[in-house]
Structures are given as C-alpha cells and as structure tokens.
Design brief:
Layout lengths: L6 H9 L6 H4 L2 H20 L3 H14 L3 E2 L11 E6 L3 E6 L5 H4 L1 E7 L4 E12 L2 E9 L12 E8 L5 E6 L9 E2 L15 H4 L7 E4 L11 H14 L9 E7 L4 E3 L5 E4 L2 H16 L6 E7 L16 H12 L4 H7 L1 E4 L3 E2 L21 E4 L3 E2 L10 H13 L4 E3 L9 E2 L3 H5 L4 E6 L1 E2 L7 E4 H15 L1
Parallel strand pairs: 1-2, 4-14, 4-15, 15-21, 16-22, 17-19
Antiparallel strand pairs: 2-3, 3-14, 5-6, 5-11, 6-10, 7-8, 7-11, 9-10, 12-13, 13-23, 17-21, 18-20
Helix pairs in contact: 3-13, 8-13, 9-10
Length: 467
C-alpha cells in the first residue's frame, strides 16, 4: 500500500506547476485518434511541399466540405462557407455564423505554408566538366551544408512564351529521377572542415546536378545541356528562355515517415509551418457549429518577412474582414476589435543534444502538447507581438475547460537568437493575438521532427478555439 502523502506533498501538488506528457494523461481512445489523425497529416505533407501545392490541397479539401469561391464584393449570408484564393499561393477560408459580429467578432487561425527551400535562378541552366547543372538562390533561413548530398525533387510552375502555364513535379515517385548537390570528399576537405559552417558551403555552391548524357552531335558545343533542354521541350514544351518566367524550387525528395520503434514521431520536410496549417484547416472544416464566424488564413512568404501580395502583410486579409463586416452592416473597426486570433507557427523544441542554447524551464518539451509563445522576437523581445496576460488567461481557461494538452515556450535562451511569426501583422489590426503551434526538432533542416501528440493537441486546441 502506498504511504499517505504528507500535508506538504499535497500542498505542493495542488499549488505547483509541471508540464504533462500527452501520452501519460490521455486515454487509449484519444491516443488512437492521435495516430489516425497523423496519417492524414503525413499524406498532406507528401502532397503539399510548396505553397502552391498546399493551396491546391486545401481548396480541394474545402470544396469537398461545401466551401465555394469568393471574390470581394460577393453577397454573403449566414451559413455561407467561402474561400478566397490569392494567386494560388495563399488562401483564406471563412464561414459566416449567427452571432453579432460587433459583439463576437471573428475567430481567426493563421499559419504559413511556405518553407525553406532552394529556388532556381531565372537563368539557371549551364554545362561544366561533364555535368549539366542549375544555379539556385536559397529561400529562407537554412544551413546550406545540410542541402548537399541528399535527393532533391523539382516542384513549381513555368509560364511559357505563349502565356500558358505548365506544372512540374519530378523526383517524388520511385520511378522518377532525383537531383543532387555535390559536396567535397573528406580526403580533399581538410581546409573546408576548418571553416565556419556558414562558409564551408556558400550560396553559390548550391548548384544542382540535372544531367550527364551528351547529345549525339559533334557540331554541338554544350551537348549535355542540349540533352536536358530536349527532355524539357519534349515533356513540358519548354525552351531555355522559359526559365525567365518560372517559379521552380528544389525540395527534399524524402517522404514523411514515422520515426522510432513506437511510431510516436514524424520525420518530414516542411513541418515548419505546414504542421500548423494542417490542424488549422482541418479544425475549421470539421467544425459543425453555426454560431461563430471563423476565418482560417494560410499565407505565403513568412520565411522571408511576410512580404509581397501573398504574404501576411498584404492588405487582402484586412479587406476580407472589412468586406464581411460591410455585408452585415457592422463597423469594420469594431469587428476587428472584437476578433481574436491564434497565430499558428512552430516553436523550437528542447533538444538534449544541444541543451546549452535552451532555458529548459521555459522551453517546449516534446509530446507535452501544443506550445503557446506569449512573445517571440529576439533579444529584448524585438519584433514581437507579446500577447496580453488577459488574452493568455482567456486561452488558458478555454484549454482547461476542453482538456487540451498544452504548454508555454520560448525560442531558446534570451540572447541566443530568436525568430518571428505573422502574429504582429495580425495584432496590428487591433486583434488580440497569441502564437500557438507545434514544437519542432531540427527546424529549417531538410528533414524535421515533430511528435504526433503535439500535432493532434494543436488540432484539438484550434477546434476548441473555433467553437
């Protein structure tokens, strides 16, 4: 028989705080639901390795749930389920509820669907010393050395000289070729390995091998390049000049896979931030309540500052909120002031292999649930939204009432670095906003790691927030 707990032990248990592991506090039924949910997420990862593919997947899935296209100025009514596709690179889904918009506002969930990658330069194709290669310009924050000697796939679109658009996706299926970036053999790399990591492989060294077969014609100077050009012409109708109006990216050709004997983890490219976009989308599409107006925003270009007309800084999202308000004779400013947002982006997960850069008490721990970052930014909270105690308290109460497994987190030690999200751009509209997302190991690497428990907890958190 267990000894009775002392008064001090009981008091400590009732007053102290400790993070809880999802697997230790969840029922067998909920754990099974978690594993089942993760299978859908892995399929999404494999189908949506670029922002364009993520938009196409999201639109296709939403249309199956009754969502219809929307353009500014369209008439809206209670019960409508609509989506605004912004140039095939970002998308907003919303459904109109019964509640007064001025009083209840709009519940917003926002995530980004772009990930670090290698974009092709506009004039990329060249031949050198028996290889045909493509020049790249990396996108987002990467460790460049991680992108050498791994299988790569090419994804994207090419606009041909006649204005027609062709899609390219090659390197994902087992029967397709992959592409490759060379690295220096260790026998000749003594000088290379003495250099800092950010210098050992330079941005201009990330050249992708795409061919090695000479075209059979002695009069042609660049025979291997011609072989590649002929393949592109035969398959896609391309000429070399068409690279000038192309958006092509090299991404890791790895599929999403379970990690560990117990299959509790998922390894994949692009967890940041599709691991938050998928729960945001599915929570909205699964919601059957009719009272609240809900908006899910999936945006592009977060990895380079949320710029451009498909990033979070674009006015289209404010325009949509204003248009919804106008349809129901509500003051847009009052609607925004009454609205609330979970800005969903990943956070760094405590890594015991690199413990020195984390402050463990305030780091996200794997499988302890979705992670709230009250503030992001760097140094003295520079560039951070820094949510209010009142809003954090409101979300905390909501999660307690719905048995959500969650935790708080910071992005490493105070002066070690930092990072930003889209939260500050939403908060700028006078909307209460806080970051909530999945902790990630090896963030921005070609193959990142997350816990299925944290993915599912994030979905459950969004579902509770939306109701």
């Amino acid at each position: 028989m267990d000894e009775k707990k002392s008064k001090g032990q009981q008091l400590m248990e009732s007053l102290s705080y400790k993070k809880k592991n999802f697997f230790e506090i969840s029922s067998e039924k909920e754990i099974k639901e978690m594993y089942d949910y993760s299978e859908g997420y892995k399929k999404f990862l494999d189908e949506a390795k670029t922002e364009r593919e993520a938009v196409a997947y999201a639109v296709r899935t939403a249309e199956a749930k009754g969502y219809k296209p929307y353009k500014l100025g369209d008439k809206l009514k209670i019960g409508d389920k609509r989506y605004y596709n912004n140039r095939d690179k970002s998308v907003a889904f919303f459904k109109i509820g019964k509640n007064d918009l001025t009083e209840d506002g709009i519940r917003i969930v926002a995530a980004h669907i772009d990930s670090p990658r290698l974009d092709l330069k506009q004039n990329p194709l060249y031949e050198d010393s028996g290889f045909c290669l493509l020049k790249t310009h990396y996108y987002g924050g990467i460790k460049k050395y991680q992108w050498t000697t791994i299988p790569l796939a090419l994804h994207g679109v090419v606009v041909l000289s006649d204005g027609s658009r062709v899609e390219m996706r090659i390197g994902e299926n087992p029967d397709e070729p992959v592409f490759y970036i060379n690295d220096l053999l260790p026998h000749l790399g003594r000088e290379q390995v003495t250099q800092p990591m950010n210098k050992a492989i330079g941005g201009e060294d990330l050249n992708i091998v795409v061919g090695g077969l000479p075209y059979c014609d002695e009069d042609v100077k660049e025979k291997i390049k011609l072989t590649v050009l002929k393949i592109l012409s035969d398959k896609y109708g391309m000429k070399e000049e068409d690279f000038l109006s192309a958006e092509l990216a090299a991404v890791p050709a790895f599929p999403a896979r379970d990690v560990g004997f117990d299959r509790a983890l998922i390894g994949a490219y692009g967890h940041d931030d599709r691991v938050c976009a998928y729960p945001a989308l599915t929570a909205l599409l699964d919601d059957e309540t009719e009272d609240r107006t809900v908006l899910a925003i999936l945006v592009d270009k977060e990895e380079i500052g949320s710029e451009g007309n498909t990033g979070m800084q674009c006015s289209i999202f404010e325009d949509i909120i204003n248009a919804i308000a106008a349809q129901f004779n509500a003051d847009p400013a009052a609607v925004r002031a009454a609205s609330k947002c979970l800005s969903s982006d990943v956070t760094s997960c405590y890594d015991p292999n690199f413990a020195s850069v984390y402050e463990k008490r305030n780091s996200a721990i794997i499988s302890c649930g979705t992670a709230m970052c009250k503030f992001t930014g760097s140094g003295g909270k520079g560039g951070s939204n820094d949510a209010s105690a009142e809003f954090v308290g409101e979300i905390r109460k909501l999660f307690a009432e719905n048995n959500i497994c969650w935790q708080t987190s910071e992005l490493g030690k105070v002066d070690m670095g930092g990072g930003g999200t889209v939260a500050k751009y939403i908060a700028k509209l006078n909307i209460d906003t806080v970051d909530l997302g999945v902790p990630v190991i090896s963030m921005h690497a070609p193959y990142e790691l997350v816990s299925k428990a944290d993915v599912y907890s994030t979905y459950k958190a969004f579902a509770a927030f939306i109701k």
